[in-house]
Amino acid sequence: MKKRRSWILYVLVFLWIFSVPAPGRSAEGSAKPPLVMIHGMFVGPWCWDRYGAYFSERGYRVLTPLLRHHDTTLNDPPPAGLRETGIHDYVADVEKEIASLPQKPVLIGHSMGGLIAQIIAAKGKARAVVLISPAAPWGINAASRTVIKSAWLNRRSLFAWGEPLRPTFEGAVYSSLHLLPPEERRRVFARFTYESPRAATQIGLWFLDPKRSTAVEARRVSCPVLTVVGAEDRLTVPSAVRKIHERYPGRSTYVELPRHGHFIIAEPGWEEGARIIESWLKTLPP
């Protein structure tokens, strides 16, 4: 009898072990896709600290690639080679990061990272994409009064054309950080870095780029798309982001968050956007 009980206990333990979802798998047993979070201009992977921790705690593998030359502080000289860096270089950085993954990832891009995500998705390399306050691809007029003012406040010299772009605190607060608590704005800005003038021109003055570096062939983005923007965004304004959403009919879900600006991923209440993304990820087909 004791021997029989031992066998029954062994079988029950065996069944329990194989019924518990493994790390990186949902309760339904389907593997959770890796999440690749792509940062934007003037910042680095650190901007994903909150989102990275949120999704890691929920069983996702999270990667936050560093776009080249974005690990220098403003206290140091600009990195060599930044002037010649373009959008295609940043795309290559992310593609290199995802090349070794066992399955297609979900690309989550913020600002310029949202544009990079669209370019990579058009190559068929993404299971899905989440565009948070995304920069617009070639052909979309994203200009507005607040965008122009943001660019003006961030100027360092009108005659330093082609030099690495150095943001100003005033410009960063107006364009991106205005919804952060005042004491946090300085701490965040202290982590800012330089940006490539070539990449900025390819995005902001796309109509002057004969190579169409930021072009995205929308019909080739066949995966699901989630497009998120803050109602108070001054840099990627909702009217422009809606145009991006409309490029992907039947594939894109549009969400506009009240009381949020451009830095959705770190503003007070950032959890709201994270929860929306988490819920949307659960709807993805296997």
Short overview:
With 286 residues, this protein is α/β, with parallel strands linked by helices. β1 (35-38), α2 and β2 form a beta-alpha-beta unit. It contains ten helices and six strands, in the order αβαβαβαβααααβαβα.
Please give a structural write-up:
With 286 residues, the chain is an alpha/beta fold. It has a single domain, classed as Alpha/Beta hydrolase fold, catalytic domain (Rossmann fold, 3-Layer(aba) Sandwich), CATH 3.40.50. The protein is built from ten helices and six strands, in the order αβαβαβαβααααβαβα. The protein has helices at 2-19, 49-56, 87-98, 112-121, 145-153, 169-177, 182-189, 197-204, 238-246, 270-281, and strands at residues 35-38, 62-63, 106-110, 128-132, 225-230, 252-257. It has a six-stranded parallel beta sheet with strand order 2-1-3-4-5-6, with helices on both faces. Helix 9 (238-246) links the parallel strand 5 (225-230) and strand 6. Helix 2 crosses helix 10 (270-281). The radius of gyration is 21 Å and the shape is globular. The N and C termini lie far apart (45 Å). Mean pLDDT is 90; it is low at 1-29.
